[in-house]
């Protein structure tokens, strides 16, 4: 597994909701959030997707909302350009290229969350 972090920017006059994501480097991609409950944190699918307010931003970051890549098909080394396509609630898609970076992260471990 791997994760994608970014700042999603909405330059329109209306809120948009990201409901899905895809990339050819992974067999499955999910929108995730990290939630706290009684001193523990859990990663889970983000119900309803990521809402980006009109003229606003939505930050994807470690320990918060992020794009989870499951079944990564090939090693993604720092500097590699990774294409992503986001699907919005209204059916439109937005594509972008992310440059992979080294991330030692929070030394997270993931149990099956299906």
Automatic annotation (TrEMBL):
Signal peptide: none
Xref: InterPro entries: LpqE-like, Lxx211020-like, PCuAC_sf
Pfam families associated with the record: PCuAC (PF04314)
Gene3D superfamilies in UniProt: PCu(A)C copper chaperone (2.60.40.1890)
UniProt-recorded name of the protein: Copper chaperone PCu(A)C
